[in-house]
Amino acid sequence: QVQLVESGGGLVQPGGSLRLSCAASGFTLDVYAIGWFRRAPGKAREGVLCIRSSGGRTYYTDSVKSRFTISRDNAKNTVYLQMNNLEPEDTAVYYCAAGPTSLRDCPREYPYWGQGTQVTVSS
Fold first, then answer.
1. Which of 12, 79, 85, 106 could form a disulfide with 16 if both were Cys (CB 3.0 to 4.6 A apart)?
2. What 8-state DSSP symbol labels residue 108?
3. CB count, 10 Å around CB of 85?
4. pLDDT for position 1
């Protein structure tokens, strides 16, 4: 079974940090691009950023460029999203997804999705 499982979400105060994990089973992540997405309450889903199999990264959302980073541990078949200086506006369910990799761009489609992990930023 192809499966992606997110973990690491929780409640954090503004200015705090969280590290989300996306663990894959049933396939090897290193041949895919992995994207992080989020859905805030009452809002549409938006892309955050992606990492390609080459290690190249692309941000979907300018608001997180100076605060969020993505990395991959191929040995653990896991991708991470490091989130620093969190703001209340970052509150959302965060999803990881896998799609065909390319040299320069994020995938056009993501066939595989996790079920999400809740991040709440509040004082």
1. 12
2. S
3. 13
4. 75
For residue range 3-56, list pLDDT tens digits in order.
999 999 999 999 999 999 999 998 888 889 999 999 999 999 999 999 999 999
Confidence tier at 72 by pLDDT (50, 70, 90): very high
Ranges assigned E (strand) in the chain:
3-7, 10-12, 18-25, 32-39, 46-51, 57-59, 68-73, 78-83, 92-100, 112-113, 117-121
Half-sphere exposure of residue 92, counting CA atoms within 13 Å on the CB side? 21
Locus of tokens 């541990």: 73
Tokens 């992080």 — which residue?
Answer: 36
Instruction: Give the Cα separation of 106 and 121 in Å (integer).
Output: 27
Assigned token pair, 46: 């938006």
The one-letter amino acid code at 82 reads Q
Residue 61 has pLDDT above 80, yes or no: yes
For residues 95 and 121, give the distance between their C-alpha atoms in angstroms, rounded to a whole number. Answer: 17
